[in-house]
């Protein structure tokens, strides 16, 4: 697999470019929009993620000789298209919801302006990144909201594809997770990494005692010991015997957690290990975390459910042409009209209307001039908030959104966004979007 | 993101190696096993996928200076471990179910023999690949089985992470899909690619007629025209008007498909386009494909449901230490025993018992000597079939399983495996595994 992102693309993006170059429409100015027709089933809000790493992938979206000869040999496109692809780099404009932002049905999450050819060719990549990362962040935010401030580590690398794992760690971190098990996510995105040992480490040694001693010898008493390989009660006794009352943490990965955790806390306290914390990591999701709200758990580790979007592994984002210029240069709004999948055409801007206490109560999508075309009366003054920020201006990427710094920025932005949501947003049960989306 | 696969790994794999080097247990010979405790909810069988590309990732699992300095700077492991990692390449043995094979709860899908350190460090990568690819292949096989021989193209790149998309295309192809939209999957794995145009191409042009004409001018009448941008009936009229009765195919991406498809077929026939085929692509899954069994659909395109495992986005595979040698070199079977997550320790082999007509009726997991240690009376003669094949022998990979050739081999193997399954395997409703797994 090569470094360019250009082949992580559906074939039809290129055949459309080829036919449009042939028909003379490839260079019409267009506006595409990524949005979700609905939230994942029963959710009250979604969280946008992926934008920062998407910008890097758009920067690296280039056709090298290797791609061009493959396309030539496989007769995917013709010579004029190959020439155009050889010179491709996105020179248009992209606005979008800031990463970490809440979104609702119809929110114009990413707005791409450029020629048809240069904008359509990014479709698959944009949707792959936004659909996956947003599904993870949307699930992660719900877990964080029921964790009552206790840290949650993302440990799901093994439950999603090996590159998806890195994206998932990043999306979960943006949505408030505290750390990840994934080393590449630590290196690439600056996310704190964590982890000590698995059951295999205990099983490898001749006894649980030998295993614990090996771990404490290596990492000190402040390490986390996994106590449920054989019997949890004996495991806790042994952990404190080996590490002393200064033991950092115990990890429990099985059992009926409310019962087991309560017993573990009593046992630790009786042993004098009153500052030893309890970490739990057993197939948790937002519901089981909520069910532990009254339990003396100090930290959570979540795997499968967060990296698979907790029942909604794709966010349902689509990328639609909403307007293009005609031969006179005038903008024409367009939309598919045949069925229930119809969408709203035209250039758009978006604003979140807040009440006097700063709580969101309406998502307003403004039809008209497009991004930064907010009319005077759109209510962006005072407590109301414009949602589209510029990411790419005539091909130039705003670098604040990239890399580890961009990831931190998204996490910080997410924290402030969550404080704006009405309390009903945090109900776990199925329901409607917590604020309505209106078109004006 | 760098080319080595070594950082697509959980931190604790490295800290375990570090502590085991320190305690002198790192070099104990171990046997790890990847298996699933259960099939995805209600499924009758699962399909193994990912093995071929996993072998390439294991080959590329090396720690370069970049990884080593990051680990040093972040104090993840100590000097002796850094030295060991610098020289790492897997030198053990790996056996497993051939890619494309059916599996059942407890089937030992991948058996890894090596020192603790060299085998444990591959855990995260092995599980990422097997969990994701197997979940896709398991869903894909069910779709193929209800398609009644009509081709299904994988078009879900935009509904999963951008690298996961390439793996998904490959897994679906192994499980019998005919093609993919994903260019990288075409290039890397030799899978046929397909695709012509999206709604945006029609919307870009001043009329549906201009758009169709542009496409036919470029690709000839044998192309596939997407007819549901405005009104399907008018779209079909226009498609045949533009391309003539030699039009290759129409694609329908919305509407109540049984009704719409029947009407489309009548209309095409009345227009004389009797050889024009009908392709449908609207949020299909195994259930909606089955519901079209009596409809004149010629080809399917499937996206979200196949790349997200149709409700089971991770296959639930785990990687467990099942045996290790002690200081005398004797093998000790081990297993976690504390809870419902208990597993069966010990070296294993596996055989599928077939009846006289070649139909599978039992998955037998043999405890004892391990792979290729089948006893005389295990029934591997005649119609019964040994399931574990050697993939890596003392670090040397069997190259037949790699690349595009390995992908084709897996697809061919899968076809023969499906003929062995009892008919009840193909019921879509929820049920138990179609054959029992027994331990001997």
What can you tell me about this protein's structure?
The structure is a homodimer of 440-residue chains. The first copy, chain A, is α/β, with parallel strands linked by helices and 440 residues long. Chain A has 2 domains: 11-134 and 315-439, nicotinate phosphoribosyltransferase (Alpha-Beta Barrel), CATH 3.20.140; 138-311, TIM Barrel (Alpha-Beta Barrel), CATH 3.20.20.70. Helices cover 36% and strands 19% of the residues of chain A. In chain A, strand 9 (249-252), helix 12 (257-270) and strand 10 form a beta-alpha-beta unit. In chain A, helix 11 (232-243) packs parallel to helix 12. The radius of gyration of chain A is 25 Å and the shape is elongated. The two termini of chain A are 46 Å apart. At the A-B interface, helix 1, helix 6, helix 7, helix 8 and helix 9 of A face helix 1, helix 6, helix 7, helix 8 and helix 9 of B. Chains A, B: Belongs to the NAPRTase family.
Highlighted features:
homodimer, 440 residues, alpha/beta, nicotinate phosphoribosyltransferase, TIM Barrel, 2 domains, 7-stranded antiparallel beta sheet, 6-stranded parallel beta sheet, 36% helix, 19% strand, elongated, ligase (chains A, B)
